[in-house]
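Open question from group meeting: does this chain pack into something compact, or does most of it stay loose? Before anyone orders reagents, we agreed to write out a predicted structure and look at it together. Recording both the input and the output here so the notebook holds the full record.
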Amino acid sequence: MALYKIDESKLTEEKVKTTPKLVNEANMALFRAKITLPAAAKHCGMTNKEMKMTFWEFLKYNKPDYVYDSDS
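Structure tokens returned:
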């Protein structure tokens, strides 16, 4: 007899379909440091390694849009 009544179907999360819109949202959030890499990967339905490679590609083709002041 089980001590707890746990519905096993609710323990797993639904698979997220990776779309360009979700990837762009995750990349922009990572670029602005709004979310962590594991959270971005989960948002896109990717593994951490896939998200890391995707973000590196994003950084390669999207240059910084801020001015770095070296005096401070």
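Observations to bring back to the group:
The CA atoms of residues 20 and 29 lie 14 Å apart.
The chain has a mean pLDDT of 90.
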